[in-house]
Structures are given as C-alpha cells and as structure tokens.
Structure of Tryptophan synthase beta chain-like PALP domain-containing protein:
Amino acid sequence: MATAMAWALVILVGLLLLVLTVIAIVLLFLTALHDSIGPLPPRDGDTSIDVDKSPLLRHLPFLKTRLAWTPLGVFPTPVHTARLPNLNGPHKDGHFFIKREDLSSPLYGGNKVRTLQHQLAACAIHYEKHPEAKFLTIGSSGSNQNVATVVHGQAMGLPIHPTLAKPDAPDFDNTLNVLSILSFNPSVVRVWTRPCDMITAYLRALFFNADKIFVMGGNNMLGVLGQIGGILELAEQIEAGELPDVDRLYVAVGSTCTLAGLVLGVCLARHLGLKAHGRKNAWFLFSLSISRYIPLFPRFALARVSKYLKEQGLNVELEPLAVKFLKESVEIVTDKELIGAYGTHSVPSLAAAAFDKIIQVEGKQPEWMASLGEDERNKAMTPWLCGHFVAKSFAKLVDDLQQESEKPAKPFVRLFWQIKSWIQPHGGADEWSRLNQLASINV
C-alpha cells in the first residue's frame, strides 16, 4: 500500500512538473514573440524624418533620441461628422463623429499604420546592420496586419514574408486582402497547410538567426506606443475645437493592440493636463486580470509600455491609472450574436453594414486625396464597414443610437474609430497567377 502511494505521488509530481514545464515553454515562446521587434534609437544625425509630426514624441520629447519612428502616413487623420437619417423615426437622426484612421495613407490606411510606425522604423535600422534578415508576419488569411506590413514594409525596402496562419471565412473582404498581398509578389508566402514550415521559420527567427517577427495584429510594445499617438492626436483635435470631448468611443477589438494604446493614451493625456478625455468614456473589450502576466494580452501590454515609459523618463506610472480606467470606464461586449465567428459578418453586423447606403458624412479630406477624381473622393467619405471587425463595433454604435428615443438634454458625444483602410492596395503583380502557384505547392 505504501509503495503504491509512493508511486502515485511520484507520478503526480511528474505530471505537475510536466505541466509547469509546458507553461514555462509557452510563456518563453510568447515573450520572445512579443519582444522580437523591440525599441531602437533613431539613426544618429538623421534629419530626414520630422519627429515633431509624431504626437507621442511631441508630448514626450525625451523619446526623440531614444525611440525610432517613421510616419508611414499623413497625419493627423481628420474627424468627420456623421448622420444616419431618420434612424429613430421621421426627422430623428442618429448623430456621431468618425475618426478617419482609414484615410491615414494613400498606400494603405487603417489603424495598422500607427501600429507599424515604430516597428518598421526599428526593422529598417536592424536591416542595415543585418542585411540577411527577413521579416515574418503572423496573421489569418484575411488579416489587415498582413496587408499593411507587406505594403509599408516593401515601400521601405524590407523583405517581408507574410504568413497566412489560419483560414478565414470565405468573406469578400478577406479575399480582397489575400489578393492584395499576392499582388505585391512577396518572395515567400507561408500558409496554414504547412504548419511545420511556419513553426520552423518562427523558431529560427526567435532563437537562431537575425530574422524578426511581426506578431499578430502588431500587438507588441512598439505597436501600442504607436496607438498612444492616435489618442494624443485626438486630444489635440478636441482642444482645437474640431469636436467636443468624447463620452463614448467605439473601437473594434482584435489583437487588443489598438485598445491598449488608446487606454494608455487617455491616461497619459490626462496626466499631461490636456483639456480632453475628461469625461467618463465607455469602451469595449474583453480582458482578464491574469493577462498581466501573459504576453499578447492587454494587461501585459499596459504593464510593459508603462514600465518602458517610466524607465525613459516619464514622471508617472501609467499602469495603475490604465487598470483603473479599464475597471471604471470600459464596457465589455460579449454578445455572441453580435460577435459571431471571427473574421466574418454576424447577422447584426451585416445589418449594420447596410447603413453605408444612407450614412451622410461631412468633413475635410487629407491633402493626399486631392489627386483623386471627384467620384473617388465622394466615395471615400463613406467608411468601409467590413465584416472582419469594423461592422461589429458599428452595429453596437447603431444599437446605442436607436436606444435614444428622445434627444438627450445634453448632447452625448459618440466617436467611431474607423480602423479599416479605405484603400484596397494593388502591388502591380498578377495576383491570380501567384494564387494558382501558391495553391499548387500547398495542397
């Protein structure tokens, strides 16, 4: 009996050690993935980039000599007014504002432009020192992050190797993204049908060679820092009177990179004394407290970025402020009907996307759009409510507007953060030939 109990104890301890070892290996891998592209100082004496165009570097000037940055797009992105006519009955319109991140670049816009500003700047410096390096991505087949990294990375002369790590639903928007990637004719495209090839490439990049990996959604410290700049830019626009202070901001949440940056940005703006973000905003995400210790989760991002900024000279610890903001000012949307399957429309989001036929939008357009024809400029005023993410947050906005049966005594300011690029890029190569080639070798 004693011998049996001893063996049982040995087996139990062995299983426990095995579980702990697996957890440690997973955390090691995720941490290495998160840190693959880290902060680097800008090139010495480089005057080709006006760093004062970065809201983050303007407000935290001590970062100018410590954190590489490249604009990639045209900023600030405009804020437009929007109206849904007769949403709640005759002459009862739904009113809100739109932050036009979708118009951030003539190459490819959307929220991933800010996500990549510090990452691609660091990669360019790394590539100068390691010309043998390749730059891998991780994303689903319809990933906007994959498209943005290929487009802007190639424009900077970097060898980008996109990875389509999982199939998405057969959605029109997802298909366009795959074809866009292939039209830039990247030398290597990895797909989910060859998982060993993907994993081997990732392990080599993380532990054995000079290659770098753009993590899912760009969700690392540099990506979050880029998104902080977006909310500081919005604070400047509020102070300039372009829109009132915001009561509720609607943003689609995927990797949570954008969300983490916006939360930290609000806390930083308040600390800096900017006359914006003073109201009790309500945003949307799903988060767990344990995620502070797991890379790629929002709490981990809040802790990492806060620690970095404090080490660089910021005179406040942002993490507790951000956690407090999450607890008090973030609404969690977990409606299964609204969320639906990843990467495609749900029934409510598909219904909400139909509002693009009647939505009326007004506001200034970026200077780069002046070269477009009048018809294209008019079309660009209507945001692209794609099924991958954006239409779902828009559905929540529409639902909230419809709950306002009567006009509130005090205007309630709603802002929709438009993250899907208006531009669908084409790199010039024959995407269909490349698709056939890719299919023939990945069956």
